[in-house]
Amino acid sequence: MIEIKDKIEQSSNIIIAGHINPDGDTVGAGLALLLGLENKYPNKRIDFVLQDSVPKNISFLKGTEKIKKIEDIVNPNYDLAIFVDSATVERVGKVERLMGDAFKINIDHHISNPKYGDINIVEDISSTSELMHSILKGLDIEITLEMGEAIYLGLVNDTGNFAHSNVTNKTFLVASELMRLGVNNNKIVNDFFKTKSLQRMKVLGKALSEMKFIQDKNLMYFNLSYEGLKNLDAIKDDTEGVVEELLNYSDSEVSLFLREDETGKIKGSMRSKHDIDVNKIAGIFGGGGHIKAAGFTTELSPDEILKRVVENL
Ligand SMILES: [Mn+2]
């Protein structure tokens, strides 16, 4: 912790980067860090830059208006880059190009993270936001209500509203501390979850009616072509949550959701209910993540992907 504090204090131009298609954890952790560093070091330039826009159901967080896009950055010249919630350097997308040879700090909770930073704080913990809570304290940065809300949303995002196996007693201690600061649990949960678009509801409906259950592997599978997505007037964000929903069937032990993107590549996501290690299976396709939640991108056909997944279950 001393090491990262020194590094931050020695730097005057700092970039914080989160992953493409940002979720509540990458935004929550990055935003809490941005607000905390701004408060503690008002004379430093600190930019939190994301390649893609913040999803609507996260943008209610105060401070998200400060998050920059790549085109906002005219003079990068950063001496320190802090990666949050990004399992690989490539996960930050085009934001990497702004970093030059800045010193890299890697703050993450993905077990597949190869520790690509010059300093790595990678822990097997519920969320990068939970990790950020202790890092901020270690940096002697006071956690304000706005920062608390951002961290809380990150916890809710990555724990499936405190339902996943990554929740520990420490996760609840952090949540409890944040509620003590004034964070409104019910409001955050409602603003985050109960804000689905009509298209998203329809994608879910299609998934639930067309999914296939592969009995001998307890695998629930759904494949969505690009045309299928277009026919519902939907965009990729509308497919969020499908893979989790597939696991709700009583006999599902593992779920596989495949989505074709506009270039014909397939984006796969997997979830596991109990003991199946989907991080390992995603690894077959060059992806990864966590034991119970992982993803990959491949040019293989859906049939070929399904075949290989089934062979490895
Ligand atoms: Mn995360």
**Biggest pleated sheet:** 6 strands, mixed
Question: What fraction of the residues are assigned to beta strands by DSSP?
Answer: 15-25%
Summed up, the helix count is 11
What is the number of E strands? 11
Low-confidence stretches: none
Distance between the termini: 40 Å
Helix content: 25-40%
Q: Could you state the oligomeric state of the chains shown?
A: single chain
Note the run of SSEs as H and E.
Answer: HEHEEEEHHHHHEEHHEEHEEH
Report the structural category: alpha/beta
Q: What's a concise summary of this model?
A:
The protein is of the alpha/beta class and 313 residues long. It has helices spanning 2-10, 24-40, 128-138, 145-159, 169-181, 185-193, 198-210, 226-231, 242-245, 278-284, 302-312; strands at 13-17, 45-49, 80-84, 103-108, 119-122, 212-214, 219-224, 254-260, 266-272, 288-289, 293-298.
Structural description of this entry:
The structure is a single chain. The longest helix is centred in the N-terminal third of the chain and has 17 residues. The protein folds into 2 domains: 192 residues, inorganic pyrophosphatase (n-terminal core), CATH 3.90.1640; 115 residues, Diaminopimelate Epimerase, Chain A, domain 1 (Roll), CATH 3.10.310.30. The strands form 2 sheets. A 6-stranded mixed beta sheet has the order 6-7-8-9-11-10. A 5-stranded parallel beta sheet has the order 2-1-3-4-5, covered by helices on one side. The protein has 11 helices and 11 strands. The site of manganese (II) ion has 6 residues, from loops.
